[in-house]
Amino acid sequence: MLYELTVTQFTKMFHNLLSILDKANTFAESKKVDPEVLLNSRLAADQFPLVRQIQIACDTAKLGASRLTAKEAPSHADTEKTMSEVKARIESVISYLETLSAKDFDAAAERHITQPRWEGQYLTGHEYVVNHVIPNFYFHITTAYSILRHNGVEVGKKDYLGKMPYKK
Amino acid sequence: MLYELTVTQFTKMFHNLLSILDKANTFAESKKVDPEVLLNSRLAADQFPLVRQIQIACDTAKLGASRLTAKEAPSHADTEKTMSEVKARIESVISYLETLSAKDFDAAAERHITQPRWEGQYLTGHEYVVNHVIPNFYFHITTAYSILRHNGVEVGKKDYLGKMPYKK
């Protein structure tokens, strides 16, 4: 379950985000503005711009999966400036997630997870996913979407959610 | 697990949202504007305003839990206009979620979930939570937060996430 909530579903959301960024690129071309204008847009002066929202979504997924499985994640220097660099960052995290299997999550629920800023305290892997990883991940994906929508990019809920595995 | 991902965690997020709305009320008073100005604010002309984002977050949690457990949910007429009416709507959904127990979710993962707009197709309860309920719920909670932050209300990530169940 933790594998599906993180690796499987976050991979899907990253593919949705890549499609949304393609729409943003097309929008920028049609308006004759540099896509970097969008990457540097924000909803509030003291909130992170689009590029940073995407970097944090990437780190939330990557470091979340890494802490849950104790499998080392690739490091990223947060130097992305162009749309293609941002897309490459997302694709790099997708590639890392693809190296993980459900089996790697066997001990994840009970694992003690900590971060430097938690000052020695911990959450179980289960608590970490429910209380921290999921709300943080969707926060940054949704904020990225909202920054683009606020700028006029024609994206809708279906772009955000992606395809549902409907059955008949 | 489905119970904790929905009932427990969504209840926590609703309490966080109630605190965020208190900050919005205080902000409106300090700016001498009616809180309804905030409730009618939006990030894009063709996106729903704050009041509707909150109504949909409420419905996502309420109908999600109801479909997963086959326990009838209270109905709401979407007529909220004032901040206190919006808060009462949230509190009504919290009260409904409190009537549900983990036991009510025993058959939830395998249950076939459908909605009129899915035209006879279904998702299993498990798929429904992972692919639909969770991303939708956090989408609307985050958008509500972003509308307020965009308007200058001083809210931060901690207001959104709430307290973590840290252990030593």
The interface involving the most residues is between: A-B, 41 and 41 residues
Rg from Cα of chain A: 17 Å
Give the full name of the CATH homologous superfamily of chain A: dinb family like domain
Would you identify the regions of chain A where 5 or more consecutive residues have pLDDT less than 50?
none
Mean pLDDT of chain A: 97
Principal-axes shape call of chain A: globular
Number of domains of chain A: 1
- The percentage of residues in β strands of chain A lies in under 5%
The ordered H/E elements of chain A are HHHHEEHH
The CATH class of chain A is Mainly Alpha
Question: How does CATH name the architecture of chain A?
Answer: Up-down Bundle
CATH topology of chain A: Four Helix Bundle (Hemerythrin (Met), subunit A)
Work out the helicity level of chain A: 55-70%
Structural class of chain A: mainly alpha
Number of helices of chain A: 6
Count of individual beta strands of chain A: 2
Q: Regarding quaternary structure, how should these chains be classified?
A: homodimer
Head-to-tail CA distance between termini of chain A: 23 Å
The main pleated sheet of chain A reads as:
2 strands, antiparallel
Overview of the molecule:
Chain A contains 6 helices and 2 strands, in the order H-H-H-H-E-E-H-H. With 168 residues, the first copy, chain A, is mainly α.
